Structure formats: structure tokens, C-alpha cells
Amino acid sequence: MFKAINKNISSSFKTIVSVIKRYKHIEHKVKVNEFDINIVETGKGENSVLLMPGAVGSGWTDFKPQIEQLPELLPNYTVIAWDPPGYGKSIPPKRNFDLDFFQSDARQAVQLMTTLNRPKFSILGWSDGGVTALIIAGRYPENVDKLVIWGANAYVSDEDVNIVKGVRDVKKWSARMREPLEKVYGAERFAEIWSEWVDAILNIHEKCKGDLCMKEIRDITARTFILHGKKDPMLAKEHVPYLKQHLQAFKYHEFPDGKHNIHLRYAEEFNKLIANFLLEKS
């Protein structure tokens, strides 16, 4: 009897250890062109999904619940979160905010996944990461399986200009929003890099007529999932209807009380929606 109990305990322990090993994250840097890109990998599946953070964000600051929970929901996926060049732990270099910084991130992301021998992948893109994801899906359709975006826009409107001007001073942010990024950059550098990002968006509005990826979204063939927080204060109301009008194949889900960070505020529901979408047969 005791042998049977011990055998069952041993078997259960081995199973637990196996699960822990399967979902334990690995954080490391990957050489991509001239950059040392910091990534977090978790899960062991053959399929791949890349998590793309928002403005000045990183894998951990922007996607902790996804890194920790998605592998269990997506056992046939490897989940990869990156810090774009000049963000998070992908420093140096100092972040470059040229007029084409979104396009540059798109190129580097595709190169990253190719370097990892995962050239075909799905994308979860939040805010700025959603813009970059739209560019990737439009310019490199052969690389993208499915696309998930939220808080993203194809252009910078006059209303967006007022929104970003209104959030330039990070001292006015709540501590909950500000402190995780201050831990990454230090308080002084965070305020500086955020102000640089605001200037970059204003420059795109002025010098590029606000165009972020208006051409690219018309070329997207990947099935797309648009999620939206109806009370998102960082996104002009016109953007979601514009994306719906110009994307070829999409599904839509709205969080009635959601704001900009629906994937953090409603992490469990959000992750299940994402997993179901990625597991659906096209």
C-alpha cells in the first residue's frame, strides 16, 4: 500500500516538475544585426507568438500576465516577448526616434524571429507594438500567421496630438503607471525618453501627415483580432472604425469599461480570448 502511495506521489511530483520546466521563462539576448535584443521565452511549442510592447515598454513591464499564463493556455506555442532596440534591457543603443522608427522596429522583429529559426509567427501588439505589428503584417505577410492588436492606430490625428501632449509630464502620472518604467530606466531617463517619444509622434504628425501604417493595413492578409477598451483615453475614437474599414479579415471584441491596458486589467479574460483565437483553425 505504502509503495503504491509513494509511487503515486513520485509520479505527481515528476509531473509538477515537468510542468514547471515547461513553463519556466528563459531570458537572454539575441544578436540581431548591430543590436543585442533582450527577449523572454516561455513554453516549448512548435508554433510561435511574439509579444510587442507599447511606447518605451519592455516584455516584463507590459506583458507579465501573458508571459506567465499564456503557455498553459497555448501548449503548442512558444511565447516570446521582446524589448525593442533602445528599450528595456535592449540598451545600448540609445533609442532612435527617427521618423521611421516603427518601420525599423518591424524589420528588427522579423530578423529576430528569423534568427530564432521561427520565421512564421503570430503577433500580439499593444499600442506602439500594435502599430509595429500592423507594419510587419502588411510588409512581411509571408512571416505572419495571425495578428492580435489593441490600443493601436494607423495614423496620428489632431486629437492624438492633444492626447500625447497631455501626457508628456510623467510627474502627473499615477505611481502605478510610472514606477515600473522608472525601475527600468531610472526616474530621470524615463522622463527624458518619454518626452523624446512624444516629440517623435508630433514629428510624424507634422512631417508625415500623421501616417504610421495607412498603406500597410490594406496589404494585410493575416486573420486579425482587434480588442478594444471602450474608455481608452490614449486612442482617438476614430481609429478602431478605421481599422475595421480597411482590414480584410478580422474579429472584434470590446471591453465596455476597459481603458488602454485591457490585457493587464482583465488579464485572465484577455488571455483566454487570445488563446481561443490563436487555436482557431483559419
TrEMBL record:
One of its GO terms (molecular function) is serine hydrolase activity. SUPFAM superfamilies: alpha/beta-Hydrolases. It comes from the Eukaryota. Residues 48-178 form the AB hydrolase-1 domain. It holds the Pfam family Abhydrolase_1. The lineage of its organism: Eukaryota, Metazoa, Ecdysozoa, Arthropoda, Hexapoda. This is AB hydrolase-1 domain-containing protein. It comes from Glossina austeni.
